[in-house]
What we know:
The structure holds two protein chains of two kinds. By secondary structure, chain A is of the alpha/beta class. Helices cover 38% and strands 24% of the residues of chain A.
Amino acid sequence: MNSGAALCGRRILIVEDEYLIACEIADALVEAGAFVVGPVARIDDALKLLETGSPLDGAVLDIHLQGDTSFPLADALAAQGVPVVFATGYGSEGIPERYREIRRCEKPVDAATVMRVLFG
Amino acid sequence: MEDFANEGARGASRWPPGDGEAARLLREFDWNTSSLGKCAHWPQSLRTTIDLVMGSPVAMVVLWGPDLIQIYNDAYRPLLAERHPKALGQRACDCWPESWGVSGPIYERVWKGGVGALRGQRCGVHRDGRLEEAWFDFIYSPLRDEAGDVAGVLVTAIETTDHIRSSEKGERALAELARSERHLRALVEMKTVGVIFFDLDGRLLETNDAFLKMSGFTRADVEAGLNWRCLTPQEWYSTSEKALAELKQKGLTAPYEKQYVRRDGTRWWALLAAKRLDEDICAEFVIDVTERRSAEQAMRDIAERLSLATEIGAIATWDWDMRSGLVTWSDEHFRIQGYAVGSIEPSYAAWAARVHPEDLPETEAVLQRARDSRRPYSYEFRMRLPDGAIRWCTARGRFFYDDDGQPIRMIGVMQDVTDKREWIERQKVMIGELQHRTRNLLAIVRSIANQTSRAASSLEEFRETFSRRLSALSRVQGLLSRSEEEPITIGRLVHTEIEALTDPAAARSIEVGGPDVILRKSAVQTLSLALHELATNALKYGPLAGDRGTLSIRWRVVRTQEGEPRLVLEWREEGAPVRPEAREFAGYGRELIEQALPYSLGARTRYELQPDGVRCLIDLPLSQGRDT
């Protein structure tokens, strides 16, 4: 995968409540040389990681998480200067105006897209 | 007799006798100044004539001698008017110069022994100090002297004023009568107004042609005897009876309308007014108003249809007279704006008061732009009702302008589209949800494909396992798509998987039981995939592969110390040794149970592979998180 160089050694947080999808994204990123943080299914867990863990290089967020949205998490990441990509099945209509700037990649997610969106 | 004797005796000294003014003036007149000379020397014939004249109540004048010297009685005096008293002893030609052309020739004829008459002469007469108009017949007859020669003319004036007056009046009355008869006839002959005459029993006596034409009956029908009942449809009898009663009581009817039936049975509408002319006869004017009635009916039909359509369609209408500011609203307009129908006076202000304050400025701007650009007005805005409820309304309208281009009127319709808006919003959410689910599903399919291909030893095995897992995924999608109407219970999920995989013989060895518990939608997919893997393994390699083993799937609801409900499901295989492959193939199912359920759903799980089968415990929170 040609994204290897860009992702190599980068710490990428994955927030996705569907186990199988989380595994898929994680596998793809690991394969591309990234260091996966998580994956976690809940925002609370993600925020905890943010407070206690090492600094992140990027994050892949599912927008809808068990009835919550990941927008507060996106705010927190943006505050730390961490680039974010939304992995979502939704079109842009479901996204509030101020998050439209954040780039999306549609599911199913592949590592190359994530790399391009985050660091391209 | 004595009196006459006395009179006669006195007459000798005082001639002519009598107390009348004429007699007195004659006595006092100085006759020497006239051609007649002293009256004492007048011939007897003249004196006799004067006696006769003075005593007569009929107006007379004696014209004596060739000069026609005038001597008249009191009755004649009014005819002289202002000529009296100068006329006494005056020559006729001096007294009446203006009419001498007419009377002169008559005197000449009488002088020759003939008679003359002028009848119906109009004269001005002095009566009670006033000049009046009066009519007279004048009779001219000769007076002769002792020798038998004509020596004067006697003029007798017989007043005919009363006669003339009364005959004049009669003529005038007759003329008047003829005239009004002419008018009446013209009226009766009018082609557009029917006139009928009838008695108080309602029997037709006479009609004009117009009525015959309207009613389709013939004059022969009328003559044969036509009752109002023949002309009236039964349901209108009471109206006609009321009119007849009114005629009997008051002598006339107020104008009224009713239906008639023609000779051919068709109906027509008439406007009627009747008057009783005398004891038995009434006249009635009849105007055919069928066309007007049907036009009115058509208008009523249109209005009713329109009002029905707007009512059924819940369409509010308004009509704004911009010059007077007067606004009319349909009932629905009141309702949409949250006013009780008729509770307020419709106005622009009343409309604006209920438009959502955030939408009002733009709504008014759109309205003004439409007015100024002469384009139709069309806008969708919110209404805020006093109870805080929000209603979406769509309005369309049009302005009308006068010759100077000033807007004078606006009419329009408005509809409550709240439901539609909500529906569209719901649709958007549903489409988003569908998109989300499809994308997730694709991701899951890819994940399953990857997992399956990693574990498969041959393409054949991959194909079989992958297709089986896809079927399980497809079954749970089916359940999810119906979950709004049919919430998914754990029992349903378990049964669906068992039924899909086992044959009837194997199904007998399976025991399923537990309360009806509705699952969170987010829990369904992973849980069903896990159950699918467990069931497949049990059937292929576990106790269900033979015919001695049993499977028991039981569940219950427990509450944590915090009162949170959890579903505890126990999967228990017993009674037959598992095949060695079981361990190998349990991988995916085990991962789902041990990894996926805790990760995604916060479940606590235990998975044990005993020699005689699998024991599995799934402890799942029922209310954690909110489902999307």
